[in-house]
Design a protein that fits this description.
Elements (H helix, E strand, L loop, with lengths): L4 E7 L12 H9 L2 E7 L12 E2 L9 E2 L1 H14 L5 E10 L2 H8 L3 E6 L8 H5 L3 E4 L8 H13 L32 E2 L2 E2 L9 H19 L1 H13 L2 H10 L1
Parallel strand pairs: 1-2, 1-6, 5-6, 5-7
Antiparallel strand pairs: 3-4, 8-9
This protein binds S-adenosyl-L-homocysteine.
Pfam families: tRNA_m1G_MT (PF01746)
GO molecular function, one term: tRNA (guanine(37)-N1)-methyltransferase activity
Function: Specifically methylates guanosine-37 in various tRNAs.
Length: 249
C-alpha cells in the first residue's frame, strides 16, 4: 500500500519516534502503511568533529540557537527526498495549530517537520527557505518533538481508514465552533452520581437539544474566545436561515 500521508521529521532525537504514534490508532495505521514516517537526524549534517548544531545567541542572552547552515543542509536533504511535501517548523512563534489547519494538512500528501531545541532556530532559515512556522499553543516546551507528535496525531486520526467504525468526527470539539458536549457511559450509578436522565430517555430530539445546550454552556464558561466567535457568527446570519438551521439540528 502506498501511504496517503508521509511525515519526515528533522530532529536531534530521532530515537524518540514513533513514540506514542506507534500505539493504538496511529500505530496500527503505521503498520498498515496508511501513513509513513522517516526521521532525519539533524546532527548528521554537522560538519565538525563534534557534530555541533548550535551556537550562542547573537546579541547575548541565555542558551544556544540552532544554526541556520546545518538546519538548511538537513532540510534540503529532506526536500530532495520528498519534494511534494510542505515544510513546517514547530515553534511557539508560529501560526496556531487549529482543527481546520489539521484538516488541511491531513487532506494533503504529508509534511516535513522541523523540530527545534534550545532557544530555537536562527531566523535566517525562515527567510532563506519556504517554511511555515506552527505553534501548538501558548506555552513553552523543551523541544519540538512533542509538538510534532501532537500535530501528526491530530492529522493521522483523520486519514481515511484510520478511525474505522467512528464517524468523521463532525460533532467533536471545534468542528462546530463549540466544545463537545460531556460524555457518559455505564455504570448508570457511580458514587451516587447518575447519567443524566435525558441520555437514557431514547428521545433523540431531546438528547440533541440537551447536548447542544451543554456544548454552549461549557464553551461559554471555559472558552470565552470561542463563544464570542460562535455568537458573532450566529448573530450575523440572516434570521430566516438561523431559524432553519436550528430546526435542522
Ligand atoms: N526561546 C523560544 C522557545 C524555545 S523552546 C521562544 O521563546 O520562542 C525549544 C523548542 O521547542 C522550539 O524551538 C520549538 O521547536 C519547540 N517548542 C516549544 N514550545 C512550542 C510550542 N508551543 N509549539 C511548537 N513548538 C514548540
Amino acid at each position: 500500500m502506498t501511504p496517503s500521508f508521509s511525515a519526515s521529521v528533522l530532529t536531534l532525537y530521532p530515537e524518540i519516534f514513533p513514540g506514542p504514534l506507534g500505539y493504538s490508532l496511529a500505530g496500527r495505521a503505521l503498520k498498515e502503511g496508511i501513513w509513513s514516517l522517516d526521521t532525519i537526524p539533524i546532527r548528521d549534517f554537522a560538519t565538525d568533529r563534534h557534530h555541533t548544531v548550535d551556537d550562542t545567541p547573537s546579541g547575548g542572552g541565555a542558551g544556544m540557537v540552532m544554526r541556520a547552515d546545518i538546519l538548511a543542509r538537513s532540510l534540503d536533504y529532506a526536500c530532495q527526498q520528498k519534494p511534494q511535501l510542505p515544510v513546517l517548523a514547530m515553534t511557539p512563534r508560529g501560526y496556531p495549530l487549529t482543527q481546520s489547519k489539521v484538516r488541511q494538512l491531513a487532506s494533503g500528501p504529508g509534511a516535513i517537520i522541523l523540530c527545534g531545541r534550545f532557544e530555537g532556530i536562527d531566523e535566517r532559515l525562515f527567510e532563506a527557505r519556504s517554511i511555515e512556522p506552527i505553534s501548538i499553543g501558548d506555552y513553552i516546551l523543551s523541544g519540538g518533538e512533542t509538538a510534532a507528535f501532537t500535530l501528526l496525531d491530530a492529522c493521522i486520526r483523520l486519514l481515511p481508514g484510520v478511525m474505522g467504525g467512528t464517524t468523521s468526527g463532525d460533532e467533536e470539539s471545534f468542528e462546530s465552533g463549540l466544545l463537545e458536549y460531556p460524555q457518559y457511559t455505564r455504570p448508570v450509578e457511580w458514587e451516587g452520581l447518575s447519567i443524566p436522565e435525558v441520555l437514557r430517555s431514547g428521545n433523540h430530539a431531546h438528547i440533541k437539544a440537551w447536548r447542544q445546550a451543554m456544548s454552549e454552556r461549557d464553551t461559554r464558561l471555559r472558552r470565552p474566545d470561542l463563544w464570542e466567535h460562535y455568537r458573532s457568527v450566529q448573530v450575523s446570519r440572516p434570521l430566516a436561515r438561523g431559524k432553519k438551521d436550528r430546526n435542522e439540528k
